[in-house]
Amino acid sequence: MKSLEFPHHKAATISSRFPRESIQKPELVIRYFKSLALSTAHMQSAVRREPLVLYADVDTTLKPKVDFCQELGLRGPHLPILIAKNPKLLTSSLNKKLKPSIGVIKRVLECYRGKSTDDKINLLLFHILSRYGWDIGNQARLESTIAYLKSCGIVGSQLIMLLKTELRLFSMREPELKGLVSQAVEMGFQMGSRMLVYGVHALYSNSPETISRKFGLFEELGFRKEECSLMFVKAPMVAAGGVSFLLKFSLERRMVPRLRVMELVKSRGVLKRHPSFVTVLLMMEDEFVNQFISKYGKDLKVAYEKWRLGSS
User: Fold this and answer.
1) pTM to 2 decimal places
2) Is the pLDDT of residue 276 over 80?
């Protein structure tokens, strides 16, 4: 335990959870982790997140799972980061959980791979599994969640986006997931639309109280409740951002004018890509004007200036 350079109280807390006769195991685990190029910081992170990993048997518990990760292409500099961020992968059942569940995720990535190479698929898998430490869901739950989301029209890159950003959502019980989607539909999102995934993401990542507080912020600034709902449907990432994030920008001179511009440009069908509203908000003024106003006619530029000045 000393070799991990933990403060005394932290080392004592971890050691107290395990019998004295197991004290020799940590040194074997540390030696094995060092052979995989884990730094002291990597090992500290892994042990803080999952102390049990320090007392696992190297040959029967750790090595088979590390070998499996390497077979998936998660090797080199990615492996130490993966272990540091999600050490539960090393304490979960290899055959009952890891192989079937990760297999489900990888099949989704390969199904929508497009022109992606194996290296890019492996990198996506790395980002998904190292997002944060969690107990990966079982195969049946993952498959049923993916099937339901597909039935709602959330497929391809949108499904992968959810896997990358909200992997815990795929462990939700089906009634809870259906309730989340129903809530999004009640707020104005349509089943099968490309915006539904952003509504689901925003509702999942924010409590009802937080959503209400953000809506209240807009209402205090003069928006009607119906307008707040419309804004959420048009740009759900505004609600996904923190309240402090919203307060950074002028509602009248930046947020509303840019939202109106994006609605108008999208309605003309001239955009090849649809950036998130957060991306649009963060753009410098010159960049926004060049990308979304100057090339689409003088009338749009005149309208934008009126909106910025508060004219209807």
Assistant:
1) 0.72
2) no
